[in-house]
Design goal:
- The protein is α/β, with parallel strands linked by helices and 350 residues long.
- 29% of the residues lie in helices and 32% in strands.
- The longest helix has 13 residues.
C-alpha cells in the first residue's frame, strides 16, 4: 500500500483546506508513491522519533505538529528541525503532519477527543467557521438519482452530522417554446469542495454543458471550526472539577484563575494555543475555558467572568496520538501502526 492511499484517507477526515493560513500540514518529507512498511504516530516528529521509526521498521511518521513551519535555508544540523529532516531523508522515512485541519473538525477531531476524556456531553464546535455552499442543478427524471448519488459520493449533502441530504422539485422546463419535465436538485457542500462538485457534475451529467448555480450560504457548517463547548452530566464544584480535569487529562499541574463561587456546568476548551477563543467562551456563558500557552497578563482577561485553566500544550494534545492510531487502525490492517513511546514534551516540571 502506498503512502498516498493513507494520506487520501486522512484528508477525507481532515481536509487540508481546513488548516489555518500559518500552518504547514501535509507530506513534509518523502514521496507519496512509496510503499508503507509501517507507521509511527506522534505529536512531534523529532530526531528521537525518527530513530524510533527506524528501530520499528516504519518508513512513515504521522505527526500532529509539522516539523517544518517555515522555509529552511540550510541543512547543517544546527537545530532540532534540521537534524530531524536530515535523518528522515537519509533513512528514507516520510513525515506527514495533520495539524490545524484536525483541530478544526468535529468528527475524529482533537477537541472531540479532549471533550470525551473529561466527560462532556451535548458538545458542539465553539466557533463554527466554514461556510457552506449550495449547488442547484437540473436533470431529467431518469438521470437525477445517479447525479444525486455522485454528488453525495463527492462530499455533498451533510448538514450538522446528517448525511446524504438533498431537496428535489419536479417541474417543467421550456426550450424553443416546448415544455418538458425536469427535476431541480439542490445539495449543500463545504466551500472547499466547490471544484470537486463542479467536476463531478460535469462527469456524471448527460449534458455536455449542465446548467447549475452555486450559492454561498450565510449559515455556518457546525461540524467545522475552532474549539468545543459542552456540558457536564452533573455540575461540579470548581476545585472538584479542576481535580477531575487534572486526573482525566493526566497533567502534572494546572494554572488557573480564581474560582468564582459557582459550580462548573458548561465547559469550553481548545487543544493547544486557544487563547484567541476566550471571548467566544465567555459569550456562550461557559463556566471554564480549558486551553494552553497562556501568558501572565492574559490570565487577567478572565475578568471574573470565567475560569481560565491552562493545562499545558503537550498535555492538552497528548491523546491525539491515540486518536490518530485509532483512525488508521480502523481503516487499514495491512501494515503495523505504532504509537510513539518518546515523550516529546520540551517542558519539565519539578
Amino acid at each position: 500500500m502506498k503512502i498516498s492511499e493513507l494520506i487520501n484517507y486522512l484528508e477525507l477526515i481532515a481536509p487540508p483546506a481546513l488548516q489555518e493560513s500559518y500552518d504547514n500540514a501535509g507530506l513534509i518529507v518523502g514521496k507519496p508513491d512509496r510503499k508503507i512498511t509501517g507507521v509511527l504516530v506522534c505529536l512531534d516528529s523529532t530526531e528521537e522519533v525518527i530513530q524510533e521509526a527506524m528501530q520499528l521498521g516504519c518508513n512513515l511518521v504521522v505527526a500532529h505538529h509539522p516539523i517544518v513551519f517555515r522555509g529552511l535555508k540550510r541543512f547543517n544540523g544546527k537545530n532540532y528541525i534540521e537534524r530531524a529532516v536530515m535523518k528522515a531523508i537519509k533513512h528514507k522515512i516520510s513525515i506527514y503532519a495533520i495539524h490545524t485541519n484536525l483541530d478544526n473538525v468535529y468528527h475524529y477531531g482533537v477537541n472531540s477527543m479532549i471533550a470525551e476524556k473529561i466527560g462532556l456531553s451535548n458538545t458542539q464546535v465553539l466557533v463554527p467557521k466554514q461556510t457552506n455552499k449550495k449547488l442547484i442543478t437540473f436533470a431529467d427524471m431518469d438521470n437525477s438519482d445517479a447525479i444525486r448519488a455522485a454528488l453525495f459520493e463527492a462530499g455533498a449533502g451533510e448538514i450538522n452530522g446528517s448525511q446524504q441530504l438533498s431537496y428535489s422539485t419536479v417541474g417543467a422546463s421550456t426550450q424553443d417554446g416546448k415544455g418538458f419535465g425536469q427535476v431541480k436538485l439542490e445539495v449543500t457542500f463545504p466551500s472547499y469542495l466547490e471544484r470537486k462538485m463542479i467536476a463531478t457534475l460535469h462527469h456524471v451529467h448527460p449534458s455536455n454543458q449542465p446548467v447549475y448555480d452555486i450559492i454561498t450560504l450565510d449559515n455556518k457548517n457546525t461540524m467545522v471550526g475552532s474549539g468545543m463547548i459542552g456540558t457536564l452530566k452533573k455540575p461540579m464544584a470548581a476545585l472538584d472539577f479542576l481535580k477531575h480535569l487534572k486526573q482525566s487529562m493526566q497533567v502534572n499541574c494546572i494554572k488557573y484563575t480564581k474560582t468564582l463561587g459557582k459550580k462548573i456546568s458548561k465547559v469550553a476548551l481548545c487543544g493547544g494555543s486557544g487563547g484567541f477563543l476566550l471571548k467566544d467562551a465567555i459569550a456562550q456563558k461557559a463556566d471554564i475555558f480549558i486551553t494552553a500557552d497562556y501568558k501572565y497578563h492574559e490570565f487577567f482577561d478572565a475578568n471574573d467572568q470565567i475560569i481560565i485553566a491552562d493545562i499545558g500544550h503537550y498535555e492538552s494534545e497528548q491523546f491525539t496520538i491515540q486518536l490518530l492510531d485509532e483512525i488508521i487502525k480502523k481503516k487499514f490492517r495491512n501494515f503495523a501502526t505504532h504509537c510513539t513511546k518518546v515523550n516529546t514534551n520540551p517542558v519539565n516540571y519539578l
